[in-house]
Amino acid sequence: QVQLVESGGGLVQPGGSLRLSCAASGRTFSRTGMGWFRRAPGKAREFVAAISWSGTSTLYADSVKGRSTISRDNTKSTVYLQMISLKLEDTAVYYCAASPDIICGREECMENWGSGTLVTVSS
């Protein structure tokens, strides 16, 4: 079992940037695949980014590719999502998730979820 706590959400203007953090506890973090998902108002939750155990492999949704960077610090049991050039359509609750797989970008791979952090992009 992994406990996940997201932070870093907030209000940002279009074109701005934000870094989300997710602190994990309860399992060997270095053998946990991590992912970020989001749920926009009125929409289903969708994949954003994923990172492998070691951090050497990453996956991104087309909608954020080139604007987002997922990274991890296994010494701090924390995964990050850096987002730049934010758009109105990036407004969503962002969820951190953990998987026993080396890397996976699908919800069904994730065994544990955080409670989410709200990102609002608005002028």
Folded structure, characterized:
With 123 residues, the protein is mainly β. Helix content is 0%, strand content 48%. The strands form two sheets. Strands 2, 4, 5, 6, 9, 10 and 11 form a seven-stranded mixed beta sheet that branches. A four-stranded antiparallel beta sheet has the order 1-3-8-7, with no helix packed on it. The radius of gyration is 13 Å and the shape is globular. 34% of the residues are buried. The mean pLDDT is 96.
Mean pLDDT: 96
**Major beta sheet summary:** 7 strands, mixed
Structural class per helix/strand content?
mainly beta
Q: Determine the N-to-C terminus distance.
A: 39 Å
Rounded to an integer, what's the Rg over CA atoms?
13 Å
Summarize the helix and strand pattern as letters: EEEEEEEEEEE
Which range best describes the helical content: under 10%, 10-25%, 25-40%, 40-55%, 55-70% or over 70%? under 10%
β-strand percent reads over 45%
Give a count of the beta strands, DSSP E runs of length 2 or more: 11
Kindly list the characteristics that best describe this protein.
0% helix; single chain; 123 residues; four-stranded antiparallel beta sheet; seven-stranded mixed beta sheet; mainly beta
Short structural description:
It is built from no helices and 11 strands. The protein is mainly beta.
What topology emerges from the helices and strands here?
Layout (H helix, E strand, L loop, with lengths): L2 E5 L2 E3 L5 E8 L7 E7 L6 E6 L6 E3 L7 E6 L4 E6 L8 E8 L12 E2 L3 E5 L2
Parallel strand pairs: 2-11
Antiparallel strand pairs: 1-3, 3-8, 4-5, 4-9, 5-6, 7-8, 9-10, 9-11
